[in-house]
Amino acid sequence: MSDRPRRKSRLVVLISGGGSNLQALINSCHQGKINADIVGVISNVAGVKGLQRATDANITATVVNHLDFQNRQEFDQQLAAEINLFNPDLVVLAGFMRILTPEFVDQFMGRMINIHPSLLPKYTGLNTHQRAIDAGDEIAGATVHFVTPELDGGPPILQGQVDISDQDTSVSLASKVLKIEHKIFPLAISWFCEHRLELVSHKVMFDGKALNESDLLYSDN
Ligand code: GRF
């Protein structure tokens, strides 16, 4: 294999809010931990902090407001068109709070990654932290996964865990989980950009081998 550095991947990041995961990705790209450039950020909500984070980092930031469209299909078509303008290698859903149509997902299958704030398959959908507390769980966490048409159901790549204490509220737990999100998301994306991750027949391949459940857990060591 040649020692020539591989070309940087092109990332488009989709957000709906604060964009702390986006910030973690911006920082990791700047630090060279991810061999990529974030070439565009798209939000479905105007005025959110994540858009400012993008602008501050000199990244093109666009709003495609779902309220401007008659239905999900029309929104998704416009969203796909905006994404494709950036010609991305990977589409990153970083706190993007919209359910996507199967037609949209199919276009980007194998090159679209999401982070979800629970230890999937537990707690797909919303209010994950309160649900984990209500269930009496002792651990919570986050999952990075390839996106498939099934909501939060795509094959997992990496999970990070945190302890739930007796004092935790959904707010304190969300902030603990965000910290681990900021570690596992850049790491998983760095693997994709190094061409170590691939989605083959709905299975995650890492360095050419199918990932097992025991491979999923992130550890700081
Ligand atoms: C994160 O917890 C993410 O997992 C969830 O929404 C939150 C977004 O946070 N889908 P941020 O916008 O990245 O700060």
Brief synopsis:
Helices cover 32% and strands 24% of the residues. The chain is α/β, with parallel strands linked by helices and 221 residues long. Helix 1 runs parallel beside helix 6 and helix 5 packs across helix 6.
Please tell me about this protein's structure.
The chain has helices at residues 20-30, 49-56, 72-85, 102-107, 128-134, 170-193; strands spanning 9-15, 36-43, 61-63, 90-93, 112-116, 139-146, 156-163, 197-200, 203-206, 209-210. The protein has six helices and ten strands, in the order βαβαβαβαβαββαβββ. The strands form two sheets. A seven-stranded mixed beta sheet has the order 3-2-1-4-5-6-7, with helices on both faces. It has a three-stranded antiparallel beta sheet with strand order 8-9-10. The protein has 221 residues and is an alpha/beta fold. 5-O-phosphono-beta-D-ribofuranosylamine binds next to helix 1, strand 5 and helix 6.
Keyword list:
6 helices, alpha/beta, 10 strands, binds 5-O-phosphono-beta-D-ribofuranosylamine, 221 residues, globular, seven-stranded mixed β-sheet, three-stranded antiparallel β-sheet
